[in-house]
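ok new one. same drill as before - structure tokens go in, u give me an amino acid for every spot. 390 of them this time. try not to just spam alanines like last time pls lmao
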């Protein structure tokens, strides 16, 4: 399981710009004081306990807290408190028609959030929970409208990260938690990504170390006649199909489609399906190349001296570019989907921080274990080329 924050031995206090919306201020903030972000370390048992207590206290008061999960960091609020969830939407700048995932720490809590618990949910929960799988089910009356964007379904996840689980247990209520970034930006996988993204908007971040999975959970809708994969992730469609024993010729349907249109202002089925959803600032090209020379020739046409270029490779490593280091940056991630998932968003955040204007990522294999990563690359890429550079 995830290592819990091996960094930041002391509480980091970062003075920040004033919070943007007055309504988004944490309840413990003094009005005249510029708010500061507390980043709580959690890498010893005593620090862990202290962080759980402090986070739970804030959440009970209706504040929002940034918490680690095994996928990406989440911006958490009491899912049963509509004002707290409204605060979360306003901090994130999230459109009101995009529902949020509800996080639970037991099957019992999960069942209290839904109207019915089908056999398919039992099977998937026993196979993959706690873990990076989100189940969309008919919502119970205790879930406020704002959580589901007015829809009659709720997305539920039982995360495996010990900090997230401990905080939910300490609270005794489920936590609504979208990824802790501003709407449509890259999800955070470290506490410092969260601090950068939410500067001036939150007061408490619990540092649970770098996320073990690194991309968002797989989302599957179990409210339709056939299960529908809404967002691919590290739990592949194949492994879900194996558990559900669904006919492979008809399922999954519609994965990666454009967002469904909803007549009459109905909530969107899953806005995470939008074509551009997880985009970094840089133009992102997904390419493969015959050899390093071919790649170098193509990059030479891009004036990398003026417009910084960065390459992320995993099989055909451009050793010469890596040795020169400038003007083209090179990162090498092992050719392994778990390692790639863990590293990808950090690389995107680093490139944005360094002002990279073009990011070239080597094409990933077309196989079930890579489908979550391929999905995020497709959504983040402004150009998507599958051919080889010869
Ligand atoms: O791994 C994750 O899922 C992370 C961590 C923090 O748990 N959370 C996350 O939340 O990625 P967010 O809000 O960034 O993405 C949730 C996705 C969105 O695409 C949203 O539209 C969809 O889940 N969603 C939420 N509730 C839904 C519902 N009732 N029906 C369909 N889709 C839903
Ligand atoms: Mg998100």
């Amino acid at each position: 399981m995830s290592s819990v924050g091996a960094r930041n031995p002391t509480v980091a206090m970062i003075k920040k710009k004033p919070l943007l919306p007055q309504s988004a201020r944490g309840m413990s903030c003094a009005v005249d004081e510029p708010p500061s972000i507390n980043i709580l370390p959690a890498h010893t048992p005593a620090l862990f306990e202290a962080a759980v207590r402090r986070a739970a206290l804030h959440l009970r008061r209706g504040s929002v807290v940034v918490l680690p999960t095994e996928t990406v960091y989440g911006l958490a609020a009491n899912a049963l408190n509509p004002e707290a969830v409204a605060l979360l939407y306003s901090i994130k700048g999230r459109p009101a028609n995009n529902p949020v995932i509800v996080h639970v720490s037991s099957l019992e809590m999960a069942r209290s959030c839904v109207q019915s618990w089908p056999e398919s949910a039992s099977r998937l929960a026993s196979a993959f929970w706690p873990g990076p799988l989100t189940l969309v089910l008919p919502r119970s009356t205790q879930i406020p409208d704002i959580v589901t964007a007015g829809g009659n379904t709720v997305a539920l996840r039982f995360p495996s990260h010990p900090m997230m689980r401990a905080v939910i247990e300490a609270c005794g209520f489920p936590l609504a938690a979208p990824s802790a970034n501003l709407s449509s930006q890259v999800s955070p996988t470290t506490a410092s990504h969260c601090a950068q993204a939410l500067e001036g908007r939150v007061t408490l971040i619990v540092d649970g170390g770098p996320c073990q999975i690194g991309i968002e959970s797989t989302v599957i809708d179990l409210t339709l006649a056939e299960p529908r994969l809404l967002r691919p992730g590290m739990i592949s469609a194949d492994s879900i199909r194996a558990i559900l024993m669904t006919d492979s010729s008809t399922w999954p349907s519609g994965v990666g489609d454009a967002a469904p249109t909803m007549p009459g202002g109905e909530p969107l089925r899953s806005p995470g399906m939008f074509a551009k959803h997880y985009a970094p600032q840089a133009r992102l090209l997904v390419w493969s190349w015959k050899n390093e020379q071919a790649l170098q020739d193509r990059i030479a046409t891009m004036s990398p001296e003026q417009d910084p270029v960065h390459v992320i490779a995993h099989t055909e490593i451009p050793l010469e570019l890596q040795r020169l280091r400038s003007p083209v940056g090179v990162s090498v991630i092992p050719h392994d989907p778990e390692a790639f998932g863990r590293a990808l968003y950090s690389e995107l955040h680093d490139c944005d921080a360094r002002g990279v204007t073009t990011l070239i990522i080597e094409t990933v294999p077309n196989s079930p274990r890579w489908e979550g990563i391929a999905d995020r690359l497709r959504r983040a890429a402004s150009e998507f080329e599958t051919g080889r550079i010869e």
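The first helix runs from residue 45 to 60. and btw The CA atoms of residues 212 and 304 lie 33 Å apart.
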